Every structure is written in C-alpha cells, then in structure tokens.
Amino acid sequence: MQTQNPFFDDMARMMSGAMGVASGMREEMEQRLRQMMENATSRMDLVSREEFEAVKAMAVKAREENEALAKRVAELESALKAKPAARSAPKKTAAKSSTKSGATRSRKASTAKTAGSTGSGSGGSGPANEA
Questions:
Q1: For a designed S-S bond to 128, which of 5, 15, 50, 113 qualifies (C-beta 3.0 to 4.6 A apart)?
Q2: Which sequence spans correspond to the domains of the chain?
Q3: Buried b or exposed e, range 95-126, using 16+ CB within 10 angstroms
Q4: What is the pLDDT of residues 30-70, one digit of tens each?
C-alpha cells in the first residue's frame, strides 16, 4: 500500500515485520510448549493409544471367555443336579463287593466240603458233611 507520507510507509513496513516476528515467536512457543508437554507425559509413564486399544481388546476377549466358562459351569452343575442316579453309583459298587464276599464264602464252603470228605475238617455237623 503506497501513501504519500513516508512516515506511514515506514510504519506499515515495521508492522509487517513485527507481524512476521510475532508469528515466528508463536510457532516457537507452540513448539516449546509441545516439547514440555511430551517431557511431562513421558515422566508420567502413560501408555500410547495403540497400547491402550490392544489391552482393551484383550480385556473384552477375556471377559467374553469368562462369561462363556461361567455359563458352561452353570450348565454342568444343573446337569449334575438333574442326575441323582449318578450319585447312587457308589452304592452299586458296594453291592458288587458284597457279592464278591458271598462268592468267597461259597468257595470256603466248597473247600470245607472237600476237606470234610478227606477226613480233616470241622467234625461232622455242618453243611459240608451233609452231602
């Protein structure tokens, strides 16, 4: 902008130079402030956005797996409560062992029977000597 007064021309040049310096100072201040903030955050031991998102995804997956396992445990517990016959299974095993002891008794009786016929045994008053 040209004026006829050299004073205003000088003033305009000085202002435009000051604006250039002010804009350079603003950029320098922003850069300096950014550097100070980065130093402060690095001392705080903060995580980056990527790390945060990765851990967040892992937590969501772990929660889903935990809920699935809790559901499965509940199903298995309800199935266990629905089958009372499975709890009486040890009693059947006890019955089998009593039959085994009955079989052992019959073997002892047959052994006594054989021993009675050879003359060595209980002496004559027993089921082994009746036959």
A1: 113
A2: 1-46, 47-84
A3: eeeeeeeeeeeeeeeeebbeebeeeebeeeee
A4: 999 999 998 888 888 888 899 999 999 999 999 999 999 99
